[in-house]
Amino acid sequence: MPRLDRHHLDILRAVSEAGTLTAAASRLHLTQSALSHTMRKLEDQLGVMIWQREGRALLWTQAGHYLLCMAQRLGPQFEEAEDRLRQFARGERGTLRVGMECHPCYQWLLKIVAPYLQAWPLVDVDVKQKFQFGGIGALFGHEIDLLVTPDPLFKPGLRFEAVFDYEQILVTNLEHPLAKMAWIEPEQLSDQVLITYPVAQERLDIYTQFLMPAGIAPKRHKTIETTDILLQMVASGRGVAALPRWLVSEYATQFPITCTQLGKTGIAKHIYLGIREEDHAIDYLADFIVRAKNRQMTA
Q1: What's 262's domain CATH number?
Q2: CA-to-CA dists, residue 201 to 40, 126, 211, 213, 231, angstroms
Q3: Whole domain around residue 222: which residue ranges?
Q4: What is the pLDDT of residues 166-225, one digit of tens each?
Q5: Is the pTM here over 0.90, yes or no?
Q6: For residue 166, how many other CB atoms are within 10 A of its CB?
């Protein structure tokens, strides 16, 4: 009876990530011949090819793609289970892995983490910003335990808690003509340089809730990853930006900037924390959510 084991999945992931059998074998502390023999034996048992050679390249078959997807999904769950069991064996509670889909929320998160670490001395916090654009998959794949996002996807197996509300506003320097307006209309940004974080337009509120519905585009769109440099560019008159009001208020004393409402009614947003349903009773995870709700951004 064919048997698909954990080490087969490890090999598939290693080959996909390393690109060659030689590099994958080195990563797994195997010889290439041993790795190849293991996979040929599996192919013989299953009666299907997993990959084909074309010169030095490996081409995944349909069956191989299926197994690789399974390996990429199950591998992190195996690793998470092993890590949790090691933590239990050492008498530790574990690590709270936080994924970020909200660039400016990093400053807010820091204000929660410091007192949280004092209250939970046996819990570490690890912030993973590589999941800025794929947090839902990371939650399902057990790569993170908690997702900070302004754009929740309410799917079975996940739970989202709203932790605070905020307003998205336009940021300009103090001398900018738009700084004198009571509110901004989309047309007024058609001749402006818009500076944003490096996020796809379909995930930027300034586009989805303001510019696109009016059929308007800015004169130019520039991206900057760090908040300090982004605001320095705005303060220097190099463009305008759309940011949470609470974040701008925190930086207002550092830069000559001001904010103006987007549209007559403004753009209201919420920050959510997402977790897996199965984890809602974990004590240190539940306490983090309570603390996040209590840490209101009032500006």
Answers
A1: 3.40.190.10
A2: 45, 28, 10, 13, 19
A3: 165-269
A4: 899 999 999 999 998 999 999 999 999 999 988 888 888 999 999 999 999 999 999 998
A5: no
A6: 23
* Together in a domain, 262 and 169: yes
Question: CA-CA distance, 212 to 137, in Å (whole number)?
Answer: 27
- Alpha-carbon distance 125 to 147, whole Å? 13
Binning the chain into helix, strand and coil, the percentages to the nearest 5 are: 45, 25, 30
Position 1 scores a pLDDT of 54
Of the candidates 212, 202, 108, which has an alpha carbon nearest to the alpha carbon of residue 163?
A: 108
> Which residue among 47, 66, 87 closes a domain?
87
**Structural tokens at position 175:** 């001398």
Q: What is the mean pLDDT of residues 61-65?
A: 93
Q: What is the C-alpha separation between 99 and 136, in angstroms, rounded? A: 9
Same domain, residue pair 178 and 263 = yes
Question: Does residue 178 sit in the same domain as residue 149?
Answer: no
For residues 237 and 115, membership in a common domain is answered with no
Same domain, 78 and 20: yes
131 — pLDDT class (breaks 50, 70, 90): very low
